[in-house]
TrEMBL record:
Residues 117-128, 586-604 have a biased composition (Pro residues). Residues 1-62, 106-128, 581-612 are annotated as: Disordered. Residues 44-53 have a biased composition (Low complexity). This is Uncharacterized protein. It holds the Pfam family DUF5691. It comes from the Bacteria. InterPro entries: DUF5691 (IPR043746). Residues 1-12 have a biased composition (Gly residues).
C-alpha cells in the first residue's frame, strides 16, 4: 500500500468509472497458488479457447472497500464483482493487485508550476564523516524499531536518535543534504523528535517541506510558518504582520518578541486584545509565560475580567506565579484566613477552616466554584486558595517556622492531606526548592509519599524543582531503600547522563535484582531508561554481569537468560553511545612527530616588479 502524493505531483484517480487500469483490474494476478507459476505476476492468464472471458465490471471496487473486506474476511463480506466459479479469496487478491497498480500509476495531470528556486545554503560546519555514517544507520533503523518484538541483545537505535541530535546541535553541525528526507520522515513519525531534528536539518528542511505535503509539519513548527520574521526594530513591519498575518504567523511573532523584547510583545497583544477571538486570546495569553515579569501584571489584571472563563483562569495562573502581584496578595489574605496555628492543645498544631462560600471576587481571581465529581465544595475552594497563595507567607503565619518544621506539624480535623497536597502544587507552580525539599521528605519514607506528596507522580514533580545534583542524590537514596520497581517515574526527571551516585545506585539495584532469581517485567522500562541515561563509563562495571548466572532452585525458569540478554543490550548500547560521542567530536589538529624542528615563519619574497 502506498500513501502520499505519487512521483510527479499528480493526484490519484483510483476507483473512478471508466479508468482504463481499473476496468482491467479483475484480470491482474498476485501470484497466489491458483496462478500459473510461469506467468508474470501481473500478467493476465491466457483466455480459454472454449470459454468466453466475462465482461469486466464497469466500476472497480475502491481501495477502502477492499481493505474492509480483507479485515472482515471473505466469509463475512464477499468481494464485489466476483467472477463466477472463482473462490472469493482469490477474487479479492486479484482486485487488490489491480487496485495497487492503479493507485501507483493512475494519475491526474498535475498543474504546471514554476520551478522552485535553489535550496538555501547552510553555513554551519559539515558533519564529520563517521558521524554522518552513524546518523544514516540510526535513521535506517526507523522501520525496524517500530516493528516491535523482542530485540535480544541489539540496541534500539531509534531511541538513541534524540541524544545524537542533541549532541550534534550542541556542536553546531549542518545536516548532510542526502539524509534530510529520512530525517524529516523520522520527525514526521515522532513529534518528540521535531524540535531537535528541525534545528539540525536547518533551512534546507524548510525548502524541502514546501515540496512535499507529508513534511508540512516542518513549516508549521518553524517561526512564522517558515517565513522570516521582521526585525523587532522595524516597527512598521512588525505592526503589519501582527495585523495582517495568519494566526500561526502572529503567534510565532509574539513568541519571538517575548524572547527578545517581552514588553514589545505584550504591548502588541494589548493593542488588538479587544478584537481577538476568545480561543485566540487564550493562545496569545499563554505566550506571556515566556519572559513573564511584574511588568505584565497590569495587562494580566485586565484579563481577569475577560468574558472567557479559560482566559480568566490562565491570567490568574500567570499572576499567581508573580509573588509580588496584587492577585497573589489577595490570595494570601484569603488563604491566611483559612489556615492558622492552634496553640490551645498540648502541642502546636495547624487549624484549618475552609471557606464558606466562593464569591464573585474569588471567581474573578480564578477560583473555580463548581468542584469535580466526588469532591466537597469547601475542600475544593481551600485547595485553590492555598495553591495560589505565595509560599513565603506561611513561615510568618505559622510562628516563624521553616518549611520543614511546618510540614512536620500535625493538622487538626483530618485536613492534612488536602493542605499538604495544595502546598505540593504551590511548590511545583512557584518552583520553590525549599518547600519542595520539605514536602519530599526523606527518600527512605514509604513509596506512596513523603510529608506532603501523596503519589510518586507528585514526588517526581517536586524533584523537578531541585537542582540536578540534589535530585540525583535523592533518587539514589530512594533506590537504595526501595529498589528499582517504584523508581521509574523518579528516574525520568533526572538529568542525562545520570550523575555518578545515581548511576551506581541503579547498577547496584540491578545486580541485586538479578541475584534474586526472577526478571520482573516492570524492569523492562527501567532497563530502557538505563540504556539511554546511564553514563557510558558504567559499561566497565556491567561487564561482569553479562554471563548467564547459575539458576537457584527457587528461580523463575529462564530468568537468568533474560537478565544476561538485558545486560548485553545495556552494555552494547552504552558502548555505542560512547562511540557516538567520539564520532561527533571535532578532529584534533595534527601535531608534528616528536623531534620535528619547528618551521621558521616564511618571509615573503620580493616580486619581480619590485626587483626590477
Amino acid at each position: 500500500m502506498m500513501n502520499g502524493t505519487p512521483p510527479g505531483g499528480g493526484t490519484r484517480a483510483d476507483g473512478e468509472a471508466g479508468d482504463p487500469v481499473g476496468s482491467r483490474g479483475s484480470s491482474a494476478r498476485t501470484g497466489h497458488p491458483s496462478a500459473d507459476s510461469s506467468a508474470h505476476p501481473l500478467q493476465a492468464p491466457a483466455a480459454s479457447p472454449t470459454a468466453a472471458a466475462p465482461s469486466p465490471p464497469a466500476t472497480a471496487p475502491s481501495w477502502e472497500d477492499l481493505v474492509t473486506t480483507a479485515l472482515l474476511g471473505t466469509d463475512r463480506r464477499a468481494p464485489a464483482h466476483v467472477v463466477p466459479g472463482r473462490p472469493a479469496p482469490v477474487a479479492l487478491l486479484d482486485a487488490a493487485a489491480a487496485a495497487t497498480v492503479r493507485r501507483r500509476a493512475g494519475l491526474r495531470p498535475a498543474r504546471a508550476a514554476r520551478r522552485p528556486g535553489p535550496a538555501p545554503a547552510d553555513p554551519r560546519p559539515a558533519l564529520p564523516a563517521p558521524a554522518a555514517r552513524r546518523l544514516s544507520v540510526l535513521l535506517a533503523d526507523r522501520s525496524g524499531g517500530a516493528a516491535g518484538g523482542r530485540r535480544g541483545g541489539s540496541p534500539d537505535l531509534m531511541e538513541l536518535l534524540p541524544q545524537w541530535l542533541a549532541a550534534a546541535n550542541a556542536h553546531g553541525y549542518a545536516a548532510p543534504p542526502q539524509l534530510l528526507p529520512a530525517l524529516l520522515d523520522a520527525a514526521r513519525g515522532r513529534t518528540d523528535l521535531r524540535p531537535a531534528a528541525l534545528a539540525f536539518a536547518g533551512p534546507r528542511a524548510l525548502w524541502l517541506a514546501r515540496l512535499n505535503p507529508d513534511w508540512r509539519f516542518a513549516l508549521r513548527a518553524a517561526p512564522g510558518g517558515g517565513a522570516a520574521l521582521p526585525d523587532p526594530a522595524d516597527a512598521e513591519a512588525v505592526r503589519r504582520l501582527w495585523q495582517e498575518g495568519l494566526f500561526a504567523e502572529r503567534a510565532a511573532l509574539l513568541g519571538a518578541l517575548r524572547v527578545r523584547t517581552p514588553g514589545l510583545g505584550r504591548d502588541l497583544l494589548a493593542s488588538t486584545w479587544a478584537t481577538e477571538r476568545a480561543e485566540d486570546r487564550l493562545m496569545f495569553l499563554d505566550s506571556l509565560r515566556t519572559g513573564l515579569s511584574d511588568a505584565d501584571e497590569p495587562f494580566l489584571e485586565q484579563a481577569l475580567g475577560d468574558r472567557s472563563r479559560n482566559v480568566r483562569a490562565t491570567a490568574a495562573e500567570l499572576l499567581s506565579a508573580l509573588p509580588g502581584s496584587a492577585l497573589a496578595a489577595r490570595m494570601a489574605v484569603r488563604a491566611s484566613a483559612c489556615v492558622a496555628l492552634d496553640r490551645t492543645g498540648s502541642a502546636p498544631a495547624i487549624a484549618v477552616e475552609a471557606p464558606l462560600e466562593c464569591d464573585a471576587a474569588m471567581e474573578r481571581d480564578g477560583v473555580v466554584a463548581a468542584p469535580p465529581a466526588g469532591r466537597g465544595e469547601r475542600s475544593w475552594w481551600l485547595d485553590q486558595l492555598v495553591e495560589a497563595a505565595p509560599l513565603g507567607i506561611w513561615p510568618g503565619r505559622l510562628g516563624g517556622r521553616t518549611p520543614q518544621e511546618i510540614v512536620a506539624l500535625p493538622v487538626a480535623d483530618g485536613w492534612q492531606g488536602e493542605l499538604h497536597a495544595a502546598w505540593c502544587r504551590a511548590a511545583v507552580r512557584q518552583r520553590d526548592a525549599g518547600w519542595s525539599r520539605a514536602l519530599l521528605g526523606s527518600p527512605s519514607a514509604p513509596e506512596a509519599g513523603g510529608p506532603g506528596a501523596v503519589s510518586l507522580a507528585e514526588r517526581a514533580k517536586l524533584l523537578a524543582a531541585l537542582d540536578p545534583a540534589e535530585r540525583a542524590v535523592w533518587v539514589a537514596g530512594f533506590i537504595a531503600t526501595h529498589g528499582l520497581s517504584e523508581a521509574f517515574q523518579l528516574l525520568g526527571v533526572c538529568a542525562v547522563p545520570w550523575a555518578p551516585p545515581l548511576g551506581q545506585a541503579v547498577v547496584d539495584a540491578l545486580n541485586i535484582a538479578r541475584d534474586a532469581g526472577s526478571y520482573p517485567w516492570s524492569f523492562s522500562g527501567v532497563m530502557g531508561l538505563a540504556e539511554r541515561c546511564l553514563d557510558p563509563a558504567e559499561a566497565v562495571r556491567l561487564e561482569g554481569l553479562l554471563a548467564v548466572p547459575d539458576e537457584r532452585e527457587d528461580a523463575a525458569p529462564g530468568a537468568g537468560g533474560y537478565w544476561a540478554e538485558a545486560f548485553q543490550r545495556l552494555v552494547t548500547t552504552l558502548r555505542l553511545r560512547a562511540a557516538m560521542t567520539r564520532e561527533l567530536s571535532p578532529p584534533a589538529p595534527a601535531t608534528p612527530p616528536p623531534g620535528t624542528p619547528a618551521q621558521p615563519p616564511q618571509t615573503p619574497s620580493p616580486s619581480r616588479e619590485a626587483a626590477a
